[in-house]
Write a structure and sequence with these properties.
2 domains, 15 helices, six-stranded parallel β-sheet, 47% helix, binds zinc ion, three-stranded parallel β-sheet, globular
């Protein structure tokens, strides 16, 4: 069995000066905690905020990548960069964690197919087409008004080139219209690396039953996100009513802009503690979303994409990656066979890779 987390924002935390070679009190992901959680590998997403202009988007993605490379160079005894399933299995046989790379936001390729190819050559094996804003490739699910009404003409070229390169297309964050356009254009299966089921929680980041069936019919996979807001509507309302997120945003921006300042770091940790003190859904809610996908599309089309280090609050019992094994244990309790659990834990995603 290979346990794979298909999405975490750990490069952003490395950028905020976290040393993931050692155990961190506050961080959701570091190498010791991955070992504790029984996680064999993770996609480190280079997350580029939609607010960045084209040049800043590219240079910021490069800075995040540089941080990951430096981290791996300092931790050769713990982890290694991998780009395919056989390298990942080989790393596991040597007792090393696998770090895969994803690019979260196609804004970083600007409007350039050669830049897309360069990111592939640097080891990026999936690209999330956009994030919380529309870009040159397609519309996001976040803004109310459409820009393209789905994929742009350039976006169609991007899909074709990603298919040719063998780079997975990540449909998390894109609008429903963009999703159906991608599904129609792509000659290869596509993935949602960190999304949940809209039938169980209404957020627009989640996928409808129809979308999940269509994704699976073309061989794709939805990897369930651990963010309580995407898992559970009751929690989403509770969080909004608390006002913590709105208040915490400024504190986080302050911290991001000056991560070396201990006071700013402490202020952000205090916000995280306040969020953790809320009445949060159990981690078993993740298994409810898995059950739902399985009921729609079968066990071959679902997996786990935590979004750790990109989410300020987690389900109860799933505070960080060291708890990861508990989801697999919950699936076992629910009657999934070892073979099914192996697929959900990482087998499905590695098959597509
Ligand atoms: Zn995301």
């Amino acid at each position: 069995m290979f346990v794979l987390d298909s999405h975490c924002d750990t490069p952003s935390q490395i950028y905020r000066l976290r040393d993931i070679g050692v155990r961190n009190a506050h961080g959701q992901v570091d190498f010791p905690k991955m070992k504790d959680g029984g996680v064999d590998g993770a996609f480190f997403a280079l997350y580029v905020p939609s607010a960045f202009g084209p040049e800043k988007a590219t240079s910021y993605a490069m800075e995040l990548l540089a941080g990951v490379c430096d981290t791996l160079a300092r931790n050769r005894d713990k982890a290694v960069l991998v780009t395919n399933a056989s390298e990942a299995y080989e790393a596991k046989s040597k007792g090393l964690l696998s770090v895969f790379l994803g690019l979260e936001n196609g804004s970083a390729i600007q409007k350039s197919i050669p830049l897309l190819r360069l990111f592939y050559r640097l080891g990026i094996r999936y690209m999330t087409l956009t994030h919380s804003g529309h870009n040159e490739i397609c519309d996001s699910c976040a803004p109310a008004a459409a820009r393209w009404g789905g994929l742009s003409p350039f976006g169609r070229e991007v899909v074709a080139e990603m298919n040719r390169l063998g780079m997975l297309i990540d449909v998390s964050h894109i609008s429903d219209e963009s999703f159906y356009d991608v599904l129609e254009c792509s000659e290869k299966p596509v993935v949602a690396t960190h999304s949940c089921c809209r039938a169980l929680a209404h957020h627009r980041r989640n996928m409808t039953d129809e979308m999940i069936r269509a994704l699976a019919a073309k061989g794709g996979i939805i990897q369930i996100n651990f963010y309580p807001v995407f898992l559970d509507d009751t929690f989403a309302s509770r969080l909004e009513a608390s006002g913590i997120e709105a208040r915490g945003e400024a504190v986080e921006v302050d911290f991001i802009n000056d991560p070396a300042d201990p006071a700013k770091r402490a202020a952000w940790y205090a916000v995280e503690d306040e969020l953790a003190a809320l009445d949060r859904p159990s981690y078993k809610r993740i298994a409810d979303h898995i059950d739902h996908v399985v009921s729609l599309a079968g066990v071959e089309h679902v997996g786990l994409g935590s979004d750790f280090d990109g989410i300020a609050v987690t389900p109860s019992g799933m505070e960080n990656v060291s708890c990861f094994h508990k989801i697999l244990e919950e699936l076992d309790r629910r009657g999934y066979s070892d073979n099914d659990i192996e697929k959900i834990a990482g087998g499905n995603f590695l098959r597509l890779l």
